[in-house]
Amino acid sequence: MPRLLVRRPSPLLAEGELTHLDRVPVDPALAPTQWEAYVEVFRSRGWDVIEVAPADSHPDGVFVEDAVVVFGDLAVLCRAGAESRRGEAASVGAAVEASGLRLSTIEAPGTLDGGDVLKIGRTVYVGASSRTNAAGTAQLREALAPDGWEVVAVPVSKVLHLKSGVTALPDGTVVGFPSLVDAPGAFEKFVPVPEEHGTAVVVLDSQTVLMSADAPVTAAQHRARGLDVLTVDVSEFEKLEGCVTCLSVRIRD
Ligand code: CIR
């Protein structure tokens, strides 16, 4: 059974880091409701939902994807690029270890945010962003080499993380909103999408993806390719430069 790591939103969510967006008010009641609905999509499809211990003093703690990246039975615990987020990893690491995965850790001076890591087949694209540095990427490359993963660094300057600009459909086609993507040519197959919030898909299975409700034209485009598309409203997290991918870590057996 696939497993899902999540952490419920902190009451301080509205104070989360912002890099490319201006701060707008976050609805304190709506954010937890949207989070519950997001988790329910997975639960109702048979995923085993594992809640990481709350981290209420960390506004961005809900974005668990940034704290750990899973490669088969190996979990790489990240060292956040933003100092305010460094305290999030320990509790995520504990949850991951309890799940029976092997653990490798990014150490100073390396920084790596999980949002910068996009896996397609055995290739791992890593965004060289304001959050992930060359030392972090090199440590990841070293940790993954024994398991046969190839790590490819790609530039990211227009959005927070690599996966704020591009993600991949089940067949490995990379989708992205062109004005947010530095190097579309870095990917074997790149397909532009027409909406900013259409860049993020979570692959639920080989036929089904989960997307933001704020990208209806993109959802129709994916359906026209033959995919089943589920949508959730994650507006309160999008205000903090989050998206559907960053609210969970997927552990597939
Ligand atoms: C941050 O700036 O770190 C948070 N406000 C948003 C993190 C979003 N994470 C992601 O896209 N993987």
TrEMBL record:
Pfam families reported in the protein's UniProt record: ADI (PF02274)
InterPro entries: DDAH-like
Xref: SUPFAM superfamilies: Pentein
Keywords noted in UniProt: Hydrolase
Keyword Transport listed: no
Signal peptide range: none
UniProt superkingdom: Bacteria
Family recorded in the similarity comment: Belongs to the DDAH family.
Listed name of the protein: N(G),N(G)-dimethylarginine dimethylaminohydrolase
Organism of this sequence: Microbacterium gallinarum
